[in-house]
């Protein structure tokens, strides 16, 4: 029996993107002091990432997976 089942594997993106959202929320105030636009951006990104992680944790689907890939990929490219 494999230690990593498909259910556990599907929880990895939820954890990773959720943690990224927390990090973005934590750094938003520091960036807000430097540049309000950057602080707002990081707050918005954190909200999007946490929202996706919560939704995907409750109702995983192929469409939500694709949205998560687009969200994470778009932020990496940005």
Can you offer a commentary on this structure?
- The chain has 78 residues and is an all-alpha fold.
- Helix content is 87%, strand content 0%.
- It contains three helices and no strands.
- Helix 1 runs antiparallel to helix 2 (36-58).
- It starts with 5 loop residues before the first helix and ends with a helix.
- The mean pLDDT is 88.
**Overall average pLDDT:** 88
Count of individual helical segments = 3
Choose one word for the global shape: elongated
Distance between the termini: 40 Å
Helix content: over 70%
Structural class: mainly alpha
Summarize the model shown.
This protein has 78 residues and is mainly alpha-helical. The protein has three helices and no strands. Helices cover 87% and strands 0% of the residues.
Topology:
Layout: H1 6-34, H2 36-58, H3 62-77
Keywords:
mainly alpha; 78 residues; elongated; single chain; 3 helices
